[in-house]
Every structure is written in structure tokens, then in C-alpha cells.
Write a structure and sequence with these properties.
Blueprint (H helix, E strand, L loop, with lengths): L1 E10 L3 E10 L2 E6 L6 E2 L6 E4 L1 E6 L1 E2 L2 E2 L5 H11 L4 E7 L5 H17 L6 E8 L21 H10 L4 E6 L6 H11 L2 E4 L6 H10 L3 E2 L15 H8 L4 E5 L7 H10 L5 E4 L11 E5 L2 E6 L2 E3 L12 H12 L3 H8 L1 H6 L17 E4 L5 E6 L2 E5 L1
Parallel strand pairs: 1-4, 1-5, 6-9, 9-10, 10-11, 11-12, 12-13, 13-14, 14-15
Antiparallel strand pairs: 1-2, 2-3, 5-19, 7-8, 16-17, 17-18, 19-20, 20-21
Helix pairs in contact: 5-6, 8-9
Length: about 375
């Protein structure tokens, strides 16, 4: 059988061990000392990790989920393999219903076909249009819509029931009703792009919200008289915190503060990357708006941060080298935690017998050496 012989592997709750991995039909069938019958996919001195999962990413390599085409999604898929990502949620923008529907139809088509050049599309993160007009961030104000279960159901149908996360503002009329509906149908309700108070988030959690979109950004901050969304994100253990760890969107002390205050399985690395990731500095686009990229920062004309160009392996490197997070814990933030958060932990997120053979191999400098999806090498450095 195919597999990996005599490699260092991160096994959650065990650590990094030298072992052998057997792979059949795209899944791990053996982990153990006997590698005699294994035909190795490659030899490596790197460490084999579970494939990274990005639950919040708009685009990369010059393409974006809002392009509304299978070709664009394939471009993103192929590019993400370079940074070790093996699965992602195609993340939409607040846009016209027609454009959102077009993007969702493309996700339905690519998932129905089931063939990818790199990372697999695990579903959709619907970021907007159900957000606060006061906290749009880089989302276009003219397309902000009132939260509606009926509209969500239409979008979900257009996606082939692929929506896994919905970002919304709970304080807006209809927000709590939509959260209850999402909870009922098994979709993650995420508090984000919101001007809500601490009490609004408490109500959202009571209604079924379990996630906070790009914590600190496009939401009310922590104040000693009003703890805000950020205070709720840190205090309420029911909430998983997404975070863009590029040290641009969030400072190192602010990253430390959240990690210190969250259960270890309630913190998830995201890139929130846009089409400019992997492209030269200069003019780009996000949701129909001009974006200017320079020195790793992507901003609108008015200076507003507009997504990122962060790579997932770099996010892990930042956590380890700048924040002081232990390596395997940082890896969990990009593998186990997002898999658990979006309900795919039974199939991926850790290296175990029976799970998909989705691996990332890093060297000592956090460079990606190989990416394996479903037992096939999709990227080699």
C-alpha cells in the first residue's frame, strides 16, 4: 500500500513521533512501527501534520469566491496547497443577491463534481449580507441586508446546502431569529461585523451562536464600562474565536490576551485572505472595491484594512515565534479546532486511522515541503 515510511508525525494527544502511515483509497489505514509493506509517497525530514483547514478565506492567486466560477475556486484550491491548506470554506462578501447566488452556485457545482487541483472546498462561510451598517469593514454598505431565515434558506439551497458558517450582527432586527434558525439546521452562527454590546452577544449565545468572526476586527472592543463583543468573545466559553494572526489585524499582546482566556479548543486560525494573496504588491479588488496591497497589508482607498494576504503556515509561524505558543498547540489551531468548529472532525483535523489522508509537511522554518489531499501529493516545494 501507499503511505509514508519512517517519518516524524504529529499525533494529537501523543505528540510528534517517528512512525509509518499506510494509505488506501485516500484514507489512513495504518499507523505503526511496521513499514515493510508501505510504498512511500516521498521521503522527508520534515514533520507530517494534519492538513490545515481555513474556515474564512475569500481568495488567493488572483481569484476570489465572489468571481462566481468553478475556475476561480480551482485557482484558490491550487494556490492554498502551497501553504499547506487541504480544506477551506469559500467565503462570500456582502454583495447583491445575484452575485452571492452566483458564487454559491459555483460552490455547489465544484462540490458536486468533487475534483480539486489542491485544497478541497468544504463548504461556504457566508460573511454577510446580514451585518451591521455601522461595522461593515471592507464590505460594501449598499448591499447590507436585514437578517432573514427565508433569504438564508434560498442561499443555502443555491449552494447545495453547503453553507457551514454565517456571519451576522445579532443586535440587528431579525438577528436572534436567524441565529435560532441556523442553530436548528446545524449551521454555525458567527457574531461579526457588529456594533453589539456584551449583552447582545450573551443573547446571541443563548439563541445558539457559537463563533466570533475575525475577533477584534469589525466589532465593538473591550472597554472597562462596556465589555463589548471582544469581552464576550474572551469570557464566554461557548464561543470559538477566529483570528487573523498576521500581527497587522491584531497585535501580539492582543493575540496573547485571547489565547490566555479561551479553552484550547475554542481558538481558530484563519487567513481571511483575498485574491491578492500570492500576487505582487499593487492594485487588487475585494467585493467590487479597489484594494491597495503593500508590504503585506491590504487596504481600501480610505485606509480600512481589507482582508489579508496571510498564508496559514505563516500564521502558525507567527504564533510560535512571536506569541510564544507551543508548536503542536499552534497546529491544533489550524487543524483540530476548525475541523471541530465546522463539524468535520470525524473525517479530518487529526491524523488517525479511518480519517482522510490529508497532510501538510513543514520544515524547521515553517516552509511547506509537501501537501497531500486524499492520499495524493498536490504540492511539492
Amino acid at each position: 500500500m501507499k503511505g509514508l515510511k519512517n517519518v516524524r508525525v504529529y499525533l494529537r494527544n501523543v505528540g510528534i513521533v517517528t512512525t509509518n502511515i499506510g494509505i488506501e483509497n485516500g484514507r489512513v489505514t495504518y499507523i505503526g512501527d511496521d513499514g515493510e509493506n508501505i510504498e512511500s509517497l516521498f521521503e522527508t525530514d520534515g514533520v507530517v501534520l494534519p492538513g490545515f483547514i481555513d474556515e474564512h478565506i475569500h481568495g488567493a492567486g488572483g481569484a476570489d469566491a465572489m468571481d462566481g466560477s468553478v475556475e476561480a475556486l480551482q485557482t484558490v484550491s491550487e494556490y492554498l496547497a502551497r501553504e499547506g491548506t487541504t480544506g477551506f470554506l469559500a467565503t462570500t462578501m456582502t454583495q447583491s443577491p445575484e452575485n452571492i447566488t452566483k458564487a454559491l452556485n459555483a460552490v455547489k457545482e465544484i462540490r458536486t463534481n468533487g475534483e480539486y487541483k489542491g485544497a478541497e472546498v468544504l463548504g461556504v462561510h457566508l460573511e454577510g449580507p446580514f451585518i451591521s451598517p455601522k461595522h461593515v469593514g471592507a464590505q460594501p454598505l449598499e448591499y447590507v441586508a436585514v437578517p432573514s431565515a427565508e433569504v438564508f434558506d434560498k442561499y443555502n439551497e443555491a449552494s447545495g446546502n453547503s453553507i457551514r458558517i454565517v456571519t451576522l450582527a445579532p443586535e440587528v432586527d431579525g438577528g436572534l431569529e436567524l441565529i435560532r434558525h441556523l442553530s436548528k439546521v446545524g449551521v454555525v452562527a458567527s457574531v461579526g461585523h457588529t456594533g453589539g454590546k456584551y449583552s447582545d452577544v450573551v443573547k446571541a449565545v443563548e439563541a445558539g451562536a457559537t463563533n466570533v468572526t475575525h475577533t477584534y476586527n469589525a466589532q465593538t472592543g473591550l472597554h472597562h464600562r462596556e465589555a463589548g463583543v471582544v469581552g464576550a468573545a474572551m469570557l464566554l466559553d461557548e464561543l470559538n474565536c477566529e483570528m487573523i494572526c498576521d500581527t497587522i489585524h491584531v497585535s501580539v499582546p492582543a493575540i496573547k490576551l485571547v489565547i490566555k482566556n479561551k479553552p484550547s479548543d475554542k481558538y481558530t486560525l484563519i487567513t481571511d485572505a483575498m485574491r491578492a494573496k500570492g500576487m505582487p504588491d499593487g492594485l487588487s479588488e475585494l467585493g467590487g472595491q479597489e484594494v491597495f496591497v503593500k508590504n503585506g497589508e491590504a487596504r481600501l482607498k480610505d485606509g480600512t484594512l481589507a482582508g489579508s494576504v496571510l498564508k496559514m503556515n505563516v500564521a502558525i509561524k507567527n504564533l510560535v515565534e512571536k506569541v510564544g505558543v507551543p508548536f503542536t498547540k499552534a497546529v491544533d489551531f489550524a487543524t483540530y479546532n476548525p475541523a471541530k468548529n465546522i463539524g468535520v472532525l470525524g473525517d479530518r483535523g487529526t491524523i488517525e486511522v479511518g480519517k482522510r489522508a490529508d497532510f501538510t509537511v513543514l520544515d524547521g522554518d515553517f516552509n511547506v515541503l509537501y501537501t497531500v489531499v486524499g492520499g495524493k501529493v498536490v504540492y511539492k516545494a
